[in-house]
Amino acid sequence: MSVISWTMLEDISWTALSIWESIADRQRVFGSIQIHLVPLRQTLIGSFPEFVIEDIEKWEGSGMIWTQLQHLRSPVDHLANIDQKLANRLQTLQETFTQQWVLIDDDEQRGLTIHYREKSNFELYQEWIEVLTEIRRLPGFEMFFKEKTFSELIKVSRDGPVVLLPDHSDIVTLTTAFIFYRCESELAVTKVLLVPLPLLNNKLVMQLRHSLTTIAKTRHGSDTANDIIDMIPPECSKDDLDASAPLSDPDCYEFSWQKRSHRVEIKSHRSQGASMLAIMKVLWDVIAKPILDSIMRFNQGDNKDEGKGKAKAWHWQDKPPPRHKRGRIWWCCLGELSFLPIHAAGIYHDDGSSTCVSDFFISSYTPNLSALIDARNRPLPQPESIKVLAAAQPDACSIEGSRWKPLPSTREELEEIAQIIPKQNLLYLNGQDQLDFTGEHTTVKNVLEVLPKASILHLACHGEQDRYNPVKSGFILKNGERLNIQELIKQRTPNAYMAVLSACHTASNDAVQPEESMNLTRTALFLGFSTIVGTKWPMADADGPALAKAIYSALFTALNSNPEPDQQLDGGDASASDGPAKPHPRNPLESFCLAKVVDDFVYGLRKVRHHVREDMSGSGEVKGRDA
């Protein structure tokens, strides 16, 4: 594709934003554009991977909607020092677009202003392009508001390997993962490894995703084969997904690899826990193990076998590294792959032993490469300046017949926080002198009033993802009032550092256009929170207090004392050295995986703090907390 064509696509993105009247409409526009880019990527991937990576980052990873919204709130101070007139014009356009694209999004207002907006937005778009053209003529501003180039994106592996897993959902086979790896033996040069994944295809991903969804929806029942079949999209046949073969249990793994169709036939079924074990094994065999194999072999490339000149092979039978030598790894999973808990991939045994990703790496997630790079450039707050806004809603709606069930453990969650975090570091709602344990003052108005002062945001409540109107997704507060994305993206949060979103579905992607998804963790990232804890699936109310205690015990100990990264964590934090957390009756495997994920998260906090880096843990997400 020529340079002119790429420029035309960039223009199309802004034209779409100038015409379509709602964010949901714009999501659909960008989804249709991305589909036509996949065949081109497949053609260029072997010869020009750098072009493919730039393209994926721009159209699939970054999310054009988020990119454009970010441009509308970027400060113009640096530009004002060079050309005040241009800075004023740009700022005026930013404010005007924000008013028309974000603030005016209610059905009633939109219905009254469509004609005006279609006309004025196109004119504003023309002026926007003119202003950007003038700005880019200034020395040092040549890349102003442009996407990062490959030479910039490759810096993403500064603190450990980053795995980019693109989603080609309109073709049968997903063949390649990109691994950004920093080679210390070659003057800290970053290389990109292309790892074939021949057994990974879209239909398998769909089967795994819908199996996970079925388990989540039937946590107190049984996920039968029929449940899974009922959730298969119309475009995927039952035979394609092989959903008639139920998921296996740990005593009866029997995988039939059908090389011709690259399908996985999974046989035998007894329980939800067994089904989850089978899914974790498939994720390990198909995705995680080939990727980790490549990283380990590349890492040992300097250890040549004597006289053979070949890299020494690394075997999974080898003993895992000690805790303090586990590396960091970031997963950038796009499209349908973003629904899969790859960090938990592995083979788990009844005796508690395992071979899994977290035995070798501490996992984090990032929605795109740029987000991780930008998060690392944000300064780490000083311990004395940290302000924590912790809010809970134990009873979102006491009205009889309300669909919002009480969440009694959210009160315990705040009590854990109150015991750990010093009073001088806490923010209170509505002028109170203590945390609002009952939720009486936890209203949208009160939370938004205090939010700009917060460096850490902790919300313990119901969360809901609205797949039909994503900007209405939000947190359910007092009387069922919703703190939604539409309100949050208007806020300015200059002190933002970390967000713990202790609610269901805070990191769930849009079912139709996951690459353009407007979820709650992505919103927190947009607001400037560089470290985010979110959930991909429904979380158990009982898990909240343990999670809060683990995170804040480790965080405030690390911030105040800078301990060794392998030092024993405080008691009750689900540390691996203490064994997994006490299982809940609902599903022992769920608690085991929760303990592993929490252990990785808090250990990661300590390790990063110990090395006195200027960032915390990037834009990681704790995914699938109840998986």
Account of the 3D structure:
The protein is α/β, with parallel strands linked by helices. It folds into 3 domains: 3-147, no CATH class; 152-365, no CATH class; 369-545, Rossmann fold (3-Layer(aba) Sandwich). The chain is built from 20 helices and 17 strands. Helix 15 links the parallel strand 10 and strand 11 (426-427). Mean pLDDT is 71; it is low at 1-8, 15-21, 103-119, 220-270, 302-314, 563-592 and 608-627. Residues 281-558 form the CHAT domain. Residues 562-588 are annotated as: Disordered. This is CHAT domain-containing protein.
What is the topology, as strand order, of the major beta sheet? 3-2-1-6-9
Regions with little confidence, pLDDT below 50 for 5+ residues? 1-8, 15-21, 103-119, 220-270, 302-314, 563-592, 608-627
Number of strands: 17
The percentage of residues in β strands lies in 5-15%
The main sheet comes to: 5 strands, mixed
**Cα distance, first to last residue?**
43 Å
Question: How many H/I helices?
Answer: 20
User: Mean of the pLDDT scores?
Assistant: 71
Helix content: 40-55%
What structural class is derived from the secondary structure elements? alpha/beta
Q: Number of folding domains?
A: 3
Shape: globular
What integer value in Å does the Rg equal?
A: 24 Å
Pfam families: CHAT
Organism: Meripilus lineatus
Protein name: CHAT domain-containing protein
InterPro entries: CHAT_dom
